[in-house]
Specification:
By secondary structure, this protein is an alpha/beta fold. Helices cover 43% and strands 10% of the residues. Helix 5 runs parallel beside helix 7. The longest helix has 20 residues. The N and C termini lie far apart (57 Å).
């Protein structure tokens, strides 16, 4: 059965037009093949980015994975009309780094809010290391700074289990990455947003009533995160 699946995927891949194209996002790619042919998932926000007016002086971009993408009603910024969500579910920091120019730098925000790392820890794209995650974060921060963009580094949210990959124990990596994020933000003049402290249950997990599945905040969880975000944006704006 597995062989048949692989053969079918190979046939589908052969029928996908590739190479340099005027409008690559016009090419229809089956869902199961989309990260193979669009690793960074540029097409997710290409049309929305093109439709944006020129950046105002108070533009904020939230950038990350599904934890950001799911933050809809309670997202906060300096100007509600110029605050933009560029989260993509399932993405690792390697994928985010690929699209960082398209979905952050080219939008010319005053502030970028980075919440990353959970899917790396979950192993979504295979084995990785804390060094690889850290270097991807560093590259995004360095690019932002070189473009005059102020950076908010969000903590990794609590995770005691990975529902889609129970072979992974996320706790040590979440602790280590958050310790590094705090230190890196402090050493480089970035703003740290500590969501972990208001969401964890005291035993390395997510407070049950604030999460959908132990990883993703529910509406109440995002409401708890809101004042942390507001404070981080205020501090970043004053830098």
């Amino acid at each position: 059965m597995l062989v048949i699946v692989f053969m079918l995927q190979a046939v589908l891949a052969q029928n996908i037009p590739t190479g340099v194209r005027t409008n690559p996002c016009a090419v229809t790619i089956p869902y199961e093949q989309h990260t193979r042919f669009d690793f960074g998932e540029f097409c997710k926000y290409e049309a929305a980015n093109a439709a944006l007016p020129p950046a105002g002086p108070r533009r904020v971009v939230y950038f990350g994975d599904s934890l950001t993408e799911g933050w809809l009603r309670n997202i906060v910024g300096l100007d509600a009309s110029d605050t933009h969500n560029r989260g993509i579910g399932g993405q690792t920091t390697a994928q985010m780094l690929v699209r960082f120019r398209a979905d952050v730098l080219n939008l010319r925000p005053r502030i970028v809010h980075l919440m990353v790392g959970t899917n790396d820890i979950a192993g979504n794209k295979g084995p990785t290391s804390l060094t690889r995650i850290q270097e991807a974060v560093m590259s995004m921060c360095e690019q932002a700074r070189s473009h005059g963009i102020r950076v908010i580094l969000a903590s990794v949210l609590p995770a005691k289990i990975i529902p889609w990959n129970r072979s992974v124990d996320p706790v040590p990596a979440v602790r280590a990455l958050n310790q590094w994020l705090v230190a890196y933000a402090g050493q480089n003049g970035h703003t740290y947003a500590d969501y972990y402290s208001v969401l964890h249950d005291g035993q390395d997990g997510f407070q049950r009533h604030l999460a959908i599945d132990g990883i993703h905040p529910n509406a109440e969880g995002y409401e708890v995160m809101r004042p942390v975000a507001m404070d981080a944006i205020r501090r970043a704006n004053l830098q």
